[in-house]
Amino acid sequence: MQLPAAAPAGDSTALGGASEQDEGAEGIQGVLTAVRRHLGMDVAFISHFETSERVFEYVDCAPGGPLRPLQRLSMNEGYCLKVVRGELPECIPDTSKLEAARQIPQTTAVPIGSHLSVPVRLRDGSLYGTLCCFSYLPNPALGEREMRLMHAFAEVVGLRMDERSAGQRARESAAREVHAAMAKGAPRIVFQPVYSITQRAVRSFECLSRFDVAPQRPPDEWFRIADEAGVGLPLELCAIEKALQSLDAFPATCSLSVNCSPSLILSGRLEPVLSAVRAPSRVTLEITEHAIVQDYAALAASLAPLRALGAGLAVDDAGAGYASMRHILNLAPDIIKLDMSLTRNIHEDGKRRALAKGLTSFAHEIDSLVIAEGVESGDELEMLQRLDVDCAQGYFLARPLGLKEALAFNATH
Asked: Is pTM beyond 0.85 here?
């Protein structure tokens, strides 16, 4: 291996591996950079011991250095395992003066002139790996002071890794909980009627999820936990598939709306689901105001084949914040749903009326239908009609219903 030019302190490039995705990764990388620079070494790294390999999870060195993040080496290669076993000292100021170090191929191949290594242990005392650094040339000044610093930093790293491991265990537990809930039949789908205000008739139903399993949580909490555990898309897709299984039970004049995240749309997993539906034009995809969209062009491109199938698009929770207007302007939805915070007591609040009127006028200018959510009184419904809002849903009109009840309700309304 060609000898890299030693980098003066402050001129290195910090290289983070998969751990860049973890909370606190920047802090760990900062600790590693501080170790290397403070001790005047050329390379510093944190390795994680697996069964037969060690993984260089964090690396700090000059560009073109001998190590890279996520690189794997056999546990028997290099210094780390030998230091942990006591076959090499933790501090080697000059590797040329130690026979055991000279016998390690990397000593001359890298080369390694001086080497410091200390174990990284978790709170329970188990070995996570090592914190190491080395220089290409010998450094006779290395000694007890430097090792005290290395041990102190290793303790900090151990605490951070322990926190990360605890977080990972929590995510895995949550993922198992979500999968167990789905295995028990969750979520159960209920249907809330959406009324045409002028016709006073049911126009469509919004499909909502309910979880009748332990632990008892609101639906939005289940979806949040699933998302944080990395199983949000399977849960969303499960809910949508269950909802659309009921589509043919409703009259052809009735449509169903389902909530979906931008992530699910971008994943491409919705197209085969909608393609399997007999009438995709009777399906509306609702994107909430609270959903974060990083790239509207990419989202619009992913929506195109779904809309080509005939599916409609609704922006949910309009009026609750700035994001909803960005969704509307960038996605040109077929339906704009006014958030219940805007609907609540609208007959008594001039500011709410002004905003609802503005959104409704804007929606009609771009040929979008307006649905008001959370209607809980006749006075609210009457005011919405005066503001030319097209449709409404809420407890005043009907609560979410099971499938049989929804079909019966639709037949009489």
From this structure: no
